[in-house]
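Minutes, methods subgroup
Present: GH (chair), OT, SY

1. OT presented the first of two proteins processed in the latest run. Sequence and structure tokens recorded below as shown on screen.
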Amino acid sequence: MTADISALDLEEAGAVLAAEAARFASFGWMRGTSGNLSVVLSRDPLRLAVTASGRDKGELTASDVVLVDGRGAAVRGGRPSAEAALHARVAALTGAGAVVHVHTVASVAMGRRAPGGIVLRDLEILKGVGQPAHDVDVLLPVIANSQDMTELGDRLEAARSPRMPAVVVAGHGLYVWGADPRQARHHTEVVEWLLELELTGR
């Protein structure tokens, strides 16, 4: 992949992200302008399409997207989410092709209840994040929040588990990733289900 990204490429990525955002907003996971999504458009140099800041996530259009670099700075378009730098960090660190950030009640509540991380096992749905359904502990890390994206990225890098394509940010929400927007969506839905189960089960 190269950085030769056309306006059409960016618009197509924007359409995909708008559709994904509408889906998450319909679940109540991206209320108002909260949350953000990204998709990698180039690896060398790293370029991502990120949802624009301050937009209602249930009403995004294909043009509500910003092209950012590996530091999360805008290359083309308007103002990206303040968390674009963390999306870029996750993409570089994990090799993910898409990153989802949602503000769910279950993720915030469980981040408070289990600040050391959430251990999951013996659940069939763990197969949805590529893990065995039985006899293996799978850690969903929880990290402290920060308004400094470099600091938050350092915490994510230190805490992330190779078994889990997600991290809970305490008092904030959930970051999830996948090879592409569809896999990132599936991972998000699975992890949120697990969080809801933990929340109700306790």
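2. SY then presented the second protein from the same run.
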Amino acid sequence: MTSPRAKSAAYPPRAAPAADPQVAERERVALGWLHTAHFLTSAPQLEHLPPVDLPEIAFVGRSNAGKSTAINTLTQQTRLAFASKTPGRTQHINLFGIGKQKVDDAVLADLPGYGYAAVPKEAKLRWQRVMGNYLMTRESLRGVVLMCDPRHGLTELDEILLDVIRPRVQQGLKFLILLTKSDKLTRSEGAKVLSITRLQAGGGEVKLFSALKKQGVGDAAQLLWQWVHPEGGAAAAEPQETPEPPEEPEAERLH
């Protein structure tokens, strides 16, 4: 699956370099890989999504949990994922390809935010069904990243989502909870919510994440790289070229 590359308007500051040179190199490779992300297609319903033969990583979360910001921070782009001006109105699944030398080896799926109070109940139920079907049946799905505002913790809808994917997690589906906006917490508050969420995660990884202070960006990038490249230890140690800024897409995605 090929598509023109999405262009980044500006480059946000990268995560602070790791003290260990090997860890720093793995972060560099993972971030360079994610920076190649480009728009592929948008679909209003699950049946409109094209099948892909590449590992797919889905980003999910409540409206206002910082999902679009997290995607843009991880990919070091400012216009890849769009946040609707009215939370809860984004009702399309957007797919982005990732791969070095313009050869995709993975797909990111940006799923609609859920739980916004102003959205009609019927729309909420419809998108719960769409997301549930996607998470339970999408054959190419390799991992799920759930965005959560740590000031509110996991909500009832987040717990429902965890219940939906739990059987697949037990079968090997990768799972990560990113506690976004962690810069708004004190150190002790961050440690407390991290401990509590790990107990709730049921086998998934949990990381504090701040787009503002770039906390957890390198760690999350490495984890996504490992999900797609389980043998990537040796590959990550190889020198990599700095990715060139992607080109502007010809068609604007739906959002």
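Chair's summary of item 2: DSSP finds seven helices and seven strands in the chain.
Next meeting: continue with the remaining queue.
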